[in-house]
Specification:
The complex is a heterodimer. Chain A is mainly beta. Chain A is built from two helices and four strands, in the order βαββαβ. Chain B has ten helices and eight strands. A seven-stranded mixed sheet of chain B has the order 3-2-4-5-7-6-8, with helices on both faces. The chains are: A mainly beta, B alpha/beta. Chains A and B meet through strand 1, helix 1, helix 2 and strand 4 of A and helix 1, strand 1, helix 2, helix 8 and helix 10 of B.
Chain lengths: 72, 254
């Protein structure tokens, strides 16, 4: 059984600390080269390998990540 | 399977808890305070005690904590959160009371209140966020600053001869007969954050037993005060803070 997940990221409230990227087992999130209104490089999903483990959301200090997961 | 097919309410596994307000936190990027706030709020949501919880905010970085928790909160004078919490708990013994303090507040100016509240065995939960520095005022040396650590008031590193030794206040509290549950946790990795949530859950559940104080220390980072990026600050924490402040339960009399 495998899982497939995806994230909904509140990019306007991301502070670009990158703590979440250290917790991702599949390296599917990274900071964007673009910036939000506050001038922070926000988080974005860079590939389709997300399994919805919610590690990123659990250690996001600002709670900007929503995680969705399905069994495939 | 497309992204739109996955994003449905029935597939939701993690979302910011409604016990936190929608206000954007003022903490620096990567600060552990935001995460500790959310863990406390998640515990309050899971235990369904939002209407019966009263928080006591400290002076320090977390001084505006009452803007972020959607529960009743009161702001205490510097270091006096355990004294204020004592008063609230004695007036409302069926409510859940927690104090939220940093190391400058709990371990420096509030040492007397902290130790005496724990020694009396006040039936409340004390959350202590230890980052070894005075973050809000500009990174001055705190009682918990490590040996040799550079801060704005110890620019050549903390010298034990002239500046004294780092204070392990959690070990002091663990010796007191009034303390029921004393533990030290961290939140810089997902596994530790999940473990910390279990510890805070137990600290809140202990209030139902009315047997003493529950004290949770959380070793956290201060990337602004330590002058490091957030990820590097977490690495520094693991290499330097954790050997001196080892994680785990120091006392569990439940």
């Amino acid at each position: 059984m495998a899982f497939k997940g995806t994230l909904v990221i509140d990019t306007e409230h991301c502070k670009g600390c990158a703590v979440c990227t250290t917790g991702c087992p599949n390296h599917c999130i990274a900071l964007s080269k673009k910036v939000n209104k506050k001038g922070y490089n926000f988080l974005e999903l860079i590939n389709d390998d997300c399994i919805g483990c919610a590690n990123c959301a659990v250690i996001c200090p600002d709670g900007i990540i929503e995680v969705y997961r399905v069994k495939v | 399977m497309t992204r739109e097919e996955i994003i449905k309410p029935e597939n939701l596994v993690y979302k910011k808890t409604p016990v936190l307000t929608s206000n954007v936190m003022h903490y620096c990027p990567g600060c552990g305070h935001g995460l500790v706030h959310r863990i406390i709020a998640e515990v309050i949501e899971e235990m369904d005690i939002q209407d019966k919880t009263i928080g006591v905010a400290p002076v320090g970085c977390a001084v505006l904590a009452y803007n972020y928790f959607d529960v009743d909160c009161i702001e205490a004078a510097h270091g006096r959160a355990p004294a204020v919490g004592t008063g609230i708990k004695r007036l409302y013994p069926n409510h859940f009371v927690f104090t939220y303090q940093g190391d400058g507040d709990l371990a420096a100016i509030g040492t007397a209140e902290t130790i005496h509240a724990a020694n009396r065995g006040e039936n409340m939960t004390m959350i202590f966020v230890n980052n070894g520095i005075y973050g809000m005022t500009g990174g001055q040396m705190a009682p918990t600053t490590l040996k040799g650590m550079k801060t704005s008031t110890s620019p050549y590193g903390r010298d034990l001869q002239t500046m004294g030794n780092p204070l392990k206040i959690t070990e002091l509290i663990a010796q007191l007969p009034g303390a029921l549950y004393v533990t030290r946790q961290a939140v810089h990795t997902p596994a530790l954050a999940r473990k910390c949530k279990k510890a805070i859950r137990q600290a809140f559940e202990n209030q139902k037993l009315n047997q003493g104080t529950s004290f949770v220390e959380i070793v956290s980072n201060c990337n602004s005060g330590w002058k490091l990026p957030a990820v590097k600050a977490n690495e520094w924490l693991e290499e330097n803070m954790l050997p001196f402040y080892p994680l785990g339960d120091l006392k569990n009399n439940k």
